[in-house]
Specification:
The chain is an all-alpha fold. The protein has 9 helices and no strands. Helix 5 crosses helix 7, helix 6 packs across helix 7 and helix 8 packs antiparallel against helix 9. It is elongated.
Length: about 210
């Protein structure tokens, strides 16, 4: 099976790719092991079940995405510009994926929420934790923008949740129609949700 040290990563990489392509429920352990190039016994050495593997895939995917979000939302520019950067980088990643494989993969967390949240409680709880963490990150930026008088929102938590929800929703439409044009409204929608003060910095590009 190759070095034990890399078998787990091979399984995780194969599982993430297959889940993004086909979803979770249709996959079998044998198919995952074949794609990973490891024997079935190796799977159960590292993961007690397919559900345990899904949780590990979620954790690894979120660890990478959290780093991307942290970089996009770093406080090197004014808060609204950070949110705009997050949307632009998300859209760019989805466009790159579409150019690579021909389809918009969407968001793994959103896809699995729709597929599994009513079927397995551990996965539902993990997805809740991930989305709560996303809202935490956005709320800090929204709160700073409110302090600067750049947005007019009452509850920053509710506002941040709405921003994350509309991002997730437009990504879902982009996946459904296999068309990244649905992502072009992200910034305009965000400004409206936050009742943002319109300035040159928040202007919506006509391109």
């Amino acid at each position: 099976m190759g070095r034990t040290s890399d078998a787990r990563e091979k399984i995780l990489t194969a599982a993430q790719s297959l889940i993004e392509l086909r979803g979770y429920s249709a996959l079998g352990v044998a198919e995952i092991c074949k794609a990973a190039g490891v024997p079935k016994g190796s799977f159960y050495y590292f993961f007690e079940s397919k559900e345990a593997l899904a949780l590990a895939v979620l954790d690894e995917h979120w660890e990478a995405q959290r780093g991307d979000w942290a970089r996009a939302l770093r406080d090197d520019v004014e808060p609204l510009s950070r949110l705009r950067r997050l949307f632009e980088e998300t859209a760019a990643g989805l466009r790159a994926g579409q150019q690579s494989c021909g389809t918009v993969s969407g968001c793994m967390f959103g896809n699995l929420t729709l597929e599994l949240s009513n079927q397995t409680e551990p996965i539902r709880e993990r997805l809740q934790q991930i989305f709560d963490a996303q809202v935490d990150m956005v709320e800090k930026v929204v709160a700073e923008a409110r302090e600067r008088g750049e947005v007019a929102v009452g509850d920053t938590r509710d506002a941040a949740r709405s921003v994350v929800a509309q991002l997730e929703g437009q990504v879902l439409f982009a996946k459904l129609y296999n068309n990244t044009q649905y992502l072009q409204v992200l910034w305009e929608n965000c400004l409206s949700l936050l009742s943002a003060r319109r300035t040159d910095a928040t202007a919506v590009s006509s391109s």
